[in-house]
Amino acid sequence: MPVGQALARYVDRIWTWEGDPSELPALLPGTGAELIFHRGSQVTAHGADGPVALPRAHLLCMRRERWTLRADGMVAFTAVRLRAGGLAYLTDHPVEDLIDRAVDIDDLLGPAGRQLTSALNGAGDLAVRAARAEQVLRRQPAPRRDPRIMAAVHQLYRQPASTSLQDLAPALGVSTRHLRRGFSAVAGVSPKEFQRLVRFQQVIRTMLLKAPASAVPVALAVGYYDQSHFIKEFHRLAGESPGRMLSRPQPHFYLPSLPRP
Predict the structure, then answer these.
(1) Which of 12, 153, 154, 249 is 20–30 Å from 20 (CA)?
(2) Residue 35 in contact with residue 79, Cβ under 8 Å?
């Protein structure tokens, strides 16, 4: 469900899902973030450091790790999907300190987090609950951010193949050091790593939604040098080959972002 224009610069959508735990996808590195509010069974994330019981309301902002999700019964949650760079409009915490963790919503947002939990897990259909959540988010003061850094995030997200990292800082009128530090604070990783994550995401979405005969032309179009480069990067981020991952049916977790206002 799309949100109003006041929030659309950093919130992509508010959505809900219910299903069997076997339908849960792997959590892969990406560029966005989700605020997730569970109503169903306890969900456990399994990563390199072992199992982690997810809080009933939490942030997920995956950048480098891969997690699998497990639950003992039916899973039900509502989520606020944030755009690339969107988390920086919601919290003063440096995003680089929040990545690859399940951050309790109370620790992230304080009283606003508890209000969001009440709104999204309360009575009514999704439209009613989403409207209440929007009211909470609109009252949350937005941190001041350097518009040049946010412009860099948006440009790399929209144009990963044609954006030169060497030319990006001079084009925006900032030093390379300022760009790197500011970028990590609002996106969680360096510009170079962010560009790699965007390419990876775009290939997955295109392959799942349009089902072209081969992933190689898609990979070249988003900036991979050749087939070897694509397969190596895919293994690094997904932990398996493109063919194996993309052959499995995927639910709407991978739908593309809604248009920005």
Answers:
(1) 12
(2) yes
